[in-house]
Amino acid sequence: MATQLAAQDAPFTWPSQDTSRVPYRVYTDPEIYALEQARLFQGPTWNFLGLDVEIPEPGDYKTTFVGDAPIIMLRTMDGQINALMNRCQHKGSLLCYKPRGNVRELTCVYHNWTYNLDGELTGVAFRKGVGGKGGVGPEFEMHDHNLVRLRVDVYRGLIFGTFSEETPPFTDYIGAELTASIDRVFIKPLKVLGYHSQMLPNNWKLYAENNKDSYHASLLHVFHNTFGVVRPNMGGGIKLSANGWHHLSYTERTPPNDDATGTEKVRSLKEQYKLNDASVMEHRLELGDLVTNSIQTIFPNLVVQQILNALAVRQLIPRGVDRSELIWTVLGFADDTPDMLALRLKANNLVGPAGFISMEDGCVGGFVQRAAKANPDDQTVMPMGGSGIEPSAGSRVTESAVRGFWKGWRDCMKI
Ligand code: FES
Ligand SMILES: [Fe+2]
Predict the structure, then answer these.
(1) pTM exceeding 0.90
(2) Which of the residues 45, 227, 298, 389 has an alpha carbon 20 to 30 A from that of 153?
(3) What is the spatial distance between Cα 356 and Cα 302, in angstroms, rounded to a whole number?
(4) Which protein residues have their CB within 5 A of the ion that is ligand 2?
């Protein structure tokens, strides 16, 4: 249960006892957006930063964000992974302004302060002045000006950072059942096959909700119900972490109709529509089960995706109250054969900004955003599957996981 703070600490009071109704102001209010930075993104959450295979060599770095905070994730000379705030302690310039690179130390371009890869301040230009004049005073202590350093946890090659000392270890954060779901997909060393990036015309939470909302998949995504990637009558269900913050939605073939190669035959549910090249839907079973779709969210900013053989992680970055950025990192396994690699790349036509089954998610959040401005105290309603936050073994026609997202949001925001 979220702690109710004094009115001056919370910009509004949650309108009901549960999370089945959400006031529109959460998508449009700059004050709420600012509070999310402090209480949620810099609060007790593990935020996805990137993959360890993206920084394989000592000195490799990649820049990213936790909420609005610019972050450098890097590999030190002894192979450790650090996450540092990408902001010089002098006057606040970005230290790394390229997406990636390889460095031995971090040097600020503005006045040349330098830091080692643990974020410790190691050099201040003109520290003792010039010709005995100028420079810093005797009270200046180098160790008072180290970079802000995040705690880091790496699981199966996924790198997470947190600003908070309170965040439990990552596997405790998501719980054993959802940890097993990551283990299920990332069975071997990973290889990055490429990236998509898209700007979403909506508040970040609308995309976060969209991923938890398995109920929309067979309705909004016409490709799904035309070609049967996801049908409401398929097997599967929804798993939730004990606190409701994280979820897994999955579908599986029931009954299996594989041919000898493990490939499911594509059937069109609308006879007038045919795929000229049905191989875009080829699915080779490789994870030891019949699961065709597995969408896992890790609160607040990560989606782990398996759709047929299309593997990816999706990182969600807020870009102001009414915009967000979605970065898809398309994955394979390091030992994929050329044949398997080709199959994965073809399957990736299904996903990404223009993906056959994901393009609508890039605009539907904008439809909500455009309508949300009016009457901010009005509320959405999410009655599917009741008003509670429970896993669902047989059905995905529930908004339980979305209500779980809002519980996580309220827990962090103390609203
Ligand atoms: S802002 Fe970095 S050295 Fe001045
Ligand atoms: Fe969707």
Answers:
(1) yes
(2) 389
(3) 21
(4) 361
